[in-house]
Amino acid sequence: MSKLKEEGLVLSLSAGGGSSHDNINSMSINVSLTKKGVKNYEQILEMIFSYIKMLKEHGVEEYTFKESQTMAQINFDWKDPDEGMGFVAGRSALMQDYKLQDMETLPFLYTKFDPKVYQAILETLTPENALVVLKTNSVETDQTDKFYGAEFSLAEVGGPAFERLKSPVRVAELIYPKVNEFIPNNLKLADEKPHLVRDDDLAKIWFQFDDRFKQPKVYMSLRIETPRIYDTVKNSQLSGLYISAIREGLNEIVYPIQLAGLSYSLGSGKKGITFSIGGYSERVGDLLRLVTRNLKTIQIDQQKFDNLKEARIRGLQNNKYGKAYSRGGYYNRLMLLEKQFTEEEALAALKPLTLDDVKAYAEKLYEKVYITGAAYGNWTDDKVSESVQILLDQIQSRPLPKEERFQEVVEILDPAEKIVFSRKILDNNNSLAYGLQIGEKSLKRQAKAMLLAAIIESDFYTEMRTRQQLGYIVWSFQQTIEDRMFLRFIIQSANHDSFELKRRVDTWLQNAGDLLDNLTDEEFERHRASEIVSLEKKGDSIAEVLGDIYYLATEEDGDFDYKKKLVEMVKKMTKAEVLTAGRKWLMDSNTPRLVLLMRAKDNGETLPEGVISEVSQFKNRRGEQARQTAPLGTGL
């Protein structure tokens, strides 16, 4: 893959084997192409078959087998436990192909190094056995699939291009993989108590020892807050290019580490960079050091940068062709969030950016930081603290004061305020996103909203999806954005216009009192029990448990009893309290609401009076209202 990327032909590559029949096995190689790669796909095929030729001539080394054997044994010994139904279903499927005594181990473990078998498999990887699929919008087609209408062409090929695949030229850079030094060989469990391991002006980090899964693994997630992510639209695009460039630069050197059961992820949000790392505890430190020492250095060349930038531009440009309900979400964010850049602003900022811009950005990104995060697994508080210090030593940062950290601000609607926004989009569907802003976040309000959302979910879906058949996408749920809480209803329809969707939802809300009045005590208790089970459910893996801990560390300021408090609030909540809140939120005209109606590209409806179509009309509405109501002589 590194050679293909060096040539600017591909963005990613994956490969693996499988079977679809008792007597047929297959090997799949999937490659994501650049524009240059599409034009030169035959060159890519030649390199693939050149690599296969090298493998045939070199043969499979025993150390490669032992690396795979070791990782298979480790993954077998320390596999995340299956839940009951998944365990039974998986074992039942294996019984179709393996003897009972072999079922537990044979599909998972490698017991014998057999180079003759490997060579026999390699010999089947020939152009004559290959089905090559080129997927792009620039190919010529002559057939149409009768079920999905997909356009395609199919042909057997020959000639010089095929002959080059049969006898590919040897490429010097395509060599056999070296020994993987990151394979762990000394896994054991530690035993420590969980506690806060660091709390100062640079970082606040928690650690909890895994006393549940008892595996020699650890996962850590950190949010590196920096003011250079969403302070300007230029920085918002630089941060995206930075993440892509760092990942690309690390791809080749991280690959053997990933084979050794380790993983990392790097992303960005408005508040900062998110960095997660995990796997077998013995070697997590090696991956941590490797990643952190590359965080301020962009190692890709101009060609790779151009490919990454092109992909990002294409993604932004394609957003406008998204599904109707997703476009509703986009405009919802523009209206409700105080700081949200438009796609046009993002594109205008992105297009002039250069590789030198990203390199300069990487140098300045971590000048000031505040790190919040957590670790969970088979480690110690000293190991966690040491790991955070390794990161800080590499990025060489000063403390970021609280007042300089990004804070998401959500628009607060006035009591009884009703905003209807409509926009024509490029999708063939219409959609509705109906939001009721129900107040500031609190445990009591959240408990009421959770129970109410559970009560109305089935009725709303049945009425809109099954009885009225408005569309396939019909959702209702409770949502919290920073300190504001909402009840939300979403419908996407190909057959009903968006204003009709609004009329149907308005009618349903007006009649919601009947649903609440007819709710029995038994039904209420079932909803309560279901919500409690959902809140008390623990993750099924070390990584999932860390996800919960990380959320509580970053979003609830380390209140790890938050879910327990919420459960207690749900247990204390009476049916009368929930129904009273439901009538107020769903039926009272004083509940502020924001309704976004996306109209399909062929929709010719005229907007009714009072419906706005520009985000600026929403943002400036209070000033406009003041001007309309101000008495003469005020100067407004």
Task: Describe this entry's structure for a reader.
This protein has helices at 2-6, 35-39, 41-58, 62-77, 84-94, 115-123, 159-166, 233-259, 281-292, 302-318, 324-336, 343-350, 355-364, 381-395, 443-467, 498-510, 512-517, 521-536, 542-555, 562-572, 575-587, 615-619, 621-629, and strands spanning 10-21, 24-33, 143-144, 151-152, 195-199, 203-209, 217-225, 262-268, 272-280, 368-377, 398-399, 418-424, 430-440, 473-481, 484-493, 593-599. Strands 5, 6, 7, 8, 9, 10 and 11 form a seven-stranded mixed sheet that branches. Strands 12-16-13-15-14 form a five-stranded mixed sheet, with helices on both faces. A hairpin with a 3-residue loop joins strand 5 and strand 6 (203-209). It starts with a helix and ends in a 7-residue tail after the last helix. The chain is an alpha+beta fold. Helix 8 (233-259) crosses helix 12 (343-350), helix 10 (302-318) packs antiparallel against helix 12 (343-350) and helix 18 packs antiparallel against helix 20 (562-572). The chain is built from 23 helices and 16 strands.
Describe the structure concisely for a colleague:
By secondary structure, the chain is of the alpha+beta class. 45% of the residues lie in helices and 19% in strands. A hairpin with a 3-residue loop joins strand 8 (262-268) and strand 9 (272-280).
Can you give the mean pLDDT? 88
The backbone outline, from C-alpha atoms, is globular
The rounded distance between the terminal residues' Cα atoms is 64 Å
Strand content: 15-25%
Uncertain regions: pLDDT < 50 for 5+ in a row? 626-636
* Count of individual helical segments: 23
Cα Rg: 29 Å
Helix/strand structural class: alpha+beta
Biggest sheet: strands, sense, closure? 7 strands, mixed
Helix content: 40-55%
Quick one: how many beta strands?
16
